[in-house]
Each structure stands twice: as C-alpha cells, then as structure tokens.
Amino acid sequence: MSVSSQASRLVSNPPAIAEAHYRAAADPYHPERNPAGYINLGTAENRLMWDVLAPRLHAPRRLTADDIGYAALHGTTALRQAIAGFLGQSWQADVDPEDLVVVSGATAALDAIASALCDPGQAIVVPAPYYSAFDTDLCGRSGARLIRVPSQACDGFRLDPAAVDQTLTDARRRKLAVRAVALTSPGNPTGHVYPPPTLRALIDVVQRHGVDLISDEIYAHSVYGPEPFVSVRDSRTGTGHSPRTHAIWGFAKAFALPGLKVGVLHAGRHEVRAAAQAFAYFAPTSTDTQALLRELLADPAWTGDFIARGRARLGVSYQHASLLLAQQGIPYVPASAGFTLWIDLGRWLEADTFAAEESLWLRIFQDARVNILPGRVFASPRPGWFRLCHTIEPALVREGIARIGQVLTAVEDKEKIA
Amino acid sequence: MSVSSQASRLVSNPPAIAEAHYRAAADPYHPERNPAGYINLGTAENRLMWDVLAPRLHAPRRLTADDIGYAALHGTTALRQAIAGFLGQSWQADVDPEDLVVVSGATAALDAIASALCDPGQAIVVPAPYYSAFDTDLCGRSGARLIRVPSQACDGFRLDPAAVDQTLTDARRRKLAVRAVALTSPGNPTGHVYPPPTLRALIDVVQRHGVDLISDEIYAHSVYGPEPFVSVRDSRTGTGHSPRTHAIWGFAKAFALPGLKVGVLHAGRHEVRAAAQAFAYFAPTSTDTQALLRELLADPAWTGDFIARGRARLGVSYQHASLLLAQQGIPYVPASAGFTLWIDLGRWLEADTFAAEESLWLRIFQDARVNILPGRVFASPRPGWFRLCHTIEPALVREGIARIGQVLTAVEDKEKIA
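YS: structure for the whole thing
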C-alpha cells in the first residue's frame, strides 16, 4: 500500500522552514507560563501590525451572493483590478489586471510559474544564498532542479549579474536545459534592495540567454532603508515590459496576512499567463478573503498609511535587533528590507564546515530553544551564517538573542578551557 | 518562448464545465435587462440558500492575531476538529481530525489524492457516466489516466461493482498499472444515492484488487430522497475503517459556498495522509475563511437546521424541474440527491452518435442560449444524455427548460416536414 514516487519524494523532503516552525510553534515561550518554551526567530512572520489590522478584519463584511459563488479561479476581476492599481502605483508602471494570476499563496504562485516554464529535469538558476523554500516551491511539483550561483561573503553576498551570466554560460556548455533565473527581490535572507542598474543588467542577461526571470517580490512593500524598491516590471528598470520577466507578490508580508494565502503572479507574456491560469485551477483563493482584500485596497488612504506605518515599525524592529546583535558581538549583513537579519556565527563554529554549522544550530535550537535557520538551508556559500527574523514582539527578540549569546559564550568558555 | 509540456497540455484541454460556465456567466439572462442572455443550467451551483447564509456571512468576524498567522497548511486544528465532529455525526463513525487534510477546494483534494497514489501513466478506474472534471482534477497534474467502466442506460446507469471488478481484471490482464477506483457518491450526474450493500461490494472489489477507492462525497448533505447517504468511511458499510477508502468532502454544495474553496480529504491510511499533507503545502486554504467555517460548525443547531432546510429546498427544486421536463416530454433518470438531472434527449438526435449530440448541444447553447452539458463530457455510455442543473431561481429553470422545449419542437417540426 504505497504512494506515488512524487509523493514519497515530497514527504521525505519537507521544507526546512516549515518543519522548524511547527516544532517551535507547538511549545512557545511565555515569560511566566512557559519560560523554557521556544522563541521563534525562524518564521518570517510580521507580528507588528495586528493593532492596525484588527478593526478592518473585525468589521462586518459587505459580501454579496456573487461573492460566494463560482468565480474566475485565477482571482476575481474586482480583486485583480484592485491589485493592478496598487502594484501599478508601486511599480510606476501600467499593470493590466488580465496579466495577474491570483492563487492560494506565494508558494502556489512559485509552483505555477515553475511548472509553467519547466518540464521535469529542466533547471532554474538561483543566486545564493536564496529563500530556502525555493527548493520545494519551485521544484516540488514541477520536477525542475536548481543550479546555484555563488556569491561572496566579503562582498556582503551582493547579487552579481555577471556571476548569473557565467552560470548560464557554464550550464549551456554542460548541455543543461535552463529555463529560468529565480531570485527574491528584495533579497531574502540578505534584506538587500537591488538598484535599477543591477536589475537592468540581470534582465539583459536572461534576455541574451533566452531564459525567463522569476522575481519573488513578496517583500516589495517591506523596505525600511533609504533606497526605493524597484520591481523587475518597473518602468525604472528601463526594461519593465520585457516578456521574459515575471513578478510574484502577495499579502503575507507587508500586509501581515500570511494565513490568508493570497499570492499573485504578474506574467510578462501571454503563454505564461495562460499556463499559470491553468495551474490556478488547482490552487484557487477563497472569494470571501478576496472580497476582504478588495475592500482594503479600495481605500488607498488607509492602505498608504498602513504601508507607511508598517515600514516605520520594520525600521524600528531592525534597529532594535541589530543593536542587540552588536551588543553580543555578532556580525550581520546590513539590511534595508524584509523581516530578517543574515548573521555571521562563523567564529563560533568548531570547524569551517556545514557539519559544524549544524552542530551549532542544534545547540541553539535544542538547548537554547531558539528557532533560527542555518545558512545551509539557504544554500549559503559559506558555513556559519544564520537567518534571524526580528518582526515579533521586541521582548521576544531580546530573549532570543540573549539565549543565542549564552550559547556563544559557552562555546567561547569551552575554547578557553581547551 | 514556449512553456512546459504539462502547461501546454493543460492549456489545450480546459475543463468543459468551466469553459461553458464562463461563457454563460459573461452574458447572463435577465427578463427585462437582457432577455436574450444565457440561462446557466450547466454549473452545479446552489443558489437556494443565500437568505439563510447572508446573516452569518455579514456578521462581524471574531478573528484573533493567530487566525491570520501561519497555520498548518493542511487546515487549522480547530477547523479540522469541527469538520471531524460534523462528518463523524453524518457518517456514524469516529473521525480523527488528524486524518483530515483541508485544501483550497475539492479539485485540490482530488488532485492531492490522485497525485498521492499515481505516478504519470498509471490509471484510475471510473464508473461512467462520471463527474466531467475528473479528467482535469484527477489527471491534470498527476499525469494519471482514466479507464472507464460502462453502465447501462436501461438500468438507469446504476453503479455496478461487478462491472468495476471486470474492468480491474481486464486492466490487469492488459498489464495496466491501476492504482485506484474513483466515483462520486451520491452520483453526479445521476443523482443516485448508493445503498450500503453496493458500497460494501465495491470496497470488497478494491480490496481484492489491491487498489484504493476515492469517493467524492461533495453531495453527501444534498440528499432529498428517502434513502440515507452512506459514506465509504461510514460504519454502516461494515468496512468503514478500510485503509483503502478515502473520502472527499467540501463546503461548495450543501453549504452553498463554492467560492470559498475549502475541500477536505479523509485519508484511510497514514501514507496517503502524509502525502496529501505534502500536496496541501501547494494549495492551502485561507485561515480567514477557515475561521468563518469553524464558527458555522461550532453552532450545531444552526448547522442542523441549515442542512435540513437545504434538503427541503433541494427536493422542491427537483420536483419543480422534473415536472417541467415531464411537461416537455423529456425523460430523465429519477434522482435522490445533488443539484442535477440527467436527461435523455436521445430521441431528438439526428443520429445515434456523439456528433449528433454535439449538434443538438450547439443548438441549445448557441441558438437557445441555455447552458446544459452534453453527456459526452461525462463519458456517457450512450449519446443523447445531458446534465441539467436546477438549483437556481425557479423562474430561470422554467425559462431554460421552455427554451430547450422550443429547440426540441423545432427539431420535431423539421422531422415532420422531412
């Protein structure tokens, strides 16, 4: 009584982020009730906006009979129009609602674009370190495989279009069928915001190689640094209408609604849009929730204020966490966006290996009961890096970083004795 | 700039029901504003319950911060517990919430179970006529293929476990790798409720052949005839705990909430549950909507009354439609459940062929502008049968059947002249 080989493969390779999240979530820390519980600094969840969101979520819903009936499975026209207006303003570009495909979460959107582009065995090139769930989201159902582009720690793991170019050239020489390049923009785990010249160079690279560019822009509205976010579909890239570029967006991050599972794909060309619509049939979004989001976006004053307050709070959260890290002597890559810090615990490793990284991770997760994710699951080019999420209650961030500091101190003490 | 072969296949084979639905929905009939518009008797949508539902949907939602955060992607514990209680009562069986996998619609649940069981090229046996979207839902992503079991029009297209047995034996002889038998229970398009001895015989067949049984029970609570619905997981089958049986359920039909996209798989064995959970990662359900449904099910008095009223209204709708059909001299299979009537227009075909069925369908769809679905898309064993949905405003059903009658009269007049 077995299952399919695809099912066996998926079951035996659960996404690392989800696994750690559920273990931590099952036994959460509370200062009085459960002081030995887990501090979850592993899940990129925005817990900073509930007070602003709650009144909108608790308000009576203006649903009609049509709102609960069968609708287009790639998103209602009303929601796609609202999203097109919202993204068009952010991107400084015209967005056609017909080019948007709304599915049940950004994961489903990544699956749709990967399955639209790749047959099993074909490849997607990803600059590393990359969003850990790409392994499952882009490959789990499509059967595609990832080819990593290394980056340099000394350079702060900057995105390098020339390195992407080189990897694509090497892949062609090795007769590998590459269909796309995928990245997170802003970067996850690095928190980098990419400048337009970098994006322009990257789009030029994919166009020359005849592959597509998948830009996961889920953190587009979670920028707190001085540089503006620029989408691959943005007019400011100078190539915003390239049929080769496809952007992914959603309500999980800046809107702080990860449970609502609303992911959006903006397809750069007709064939990809049609394919993504066909995949949306298998992962549609609740029209009840779509109606809620349509109402939120229909109020630009509220939305604008919400996004602005969100960015301000993210900046405060980042400053708070980075100060605590500095106090512990923990280096990190300066970030401008997102919910995470990419921290360097390399000097506390027993050896310069991923096995040593795993040992340190186990001490932090099992002994100190803090969930942060090891760099290996982000395909970090070097061992010793970890991703730490800071967008939860500041007291929890303080407790979590203090516990990490205790582990590091214990490592140092052991070294001194030895 | 092409797309993957899976994407090409899906795009070139859109599900017939969805295609006709969107064409009809784009230009709907209205007695004054659009008298030449489409009457949609093709989509199995329950438009009879809005007055009862609306107050619950419009009420303020009691959401907490946890309700919008990351939750188990196969359904929140609270919703799975509520569904387990509800289904357990219906099934007269203990239902463990851990055996339930909640995904974004019954289609996603069918995809999950088919992908869990089948590798590409493996087969699922389906008694015909069968729910038309099985072609896409069970095969579109899994790569499985369907093998039909014919039934007899003279016998009212009854489900025949002996014929399923014979098909499985034949398939084995032809070295085909069959992994499952799939059916709708109650039957769609027939509206049949299967008696426990039939289900027991069917479960015995699948167990002997070492294959799984996928029972799509989306119409479980839409029974208006005298026979009680019995699930394949029901204690009354005497085999309700078989690890080989898997049931699918959802909120689209009796709860009249098809837009909310909440499908449920009850897995009969651990490996299938684990596999379906892995696929749920790609098609999760909005936690906002899950909270709404949890609240509905938390009120058993309201739910019980709602289901009872729904059944009564379905019975009235069925009586109304079948009387109108009888007045037009249109034969149909007597039904006990569901939203549809399986009607016989065979004597108005120009020839006893599916090409003639297509011609008649085109006259009804294009000339009379009534959307009913031809039997071919349900793999009807004989040409001339059509599925007609009656669960909309009675005046629309009356207008639709009158228009069909006009087409049939025109056919008869032409025959008389000839």
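YS: worth flagging: The CA atoms of residues 368 and 403 of chain B lie 6 Å apart.
IM: good catch. Also The mean pLDDT of chain B is 95.
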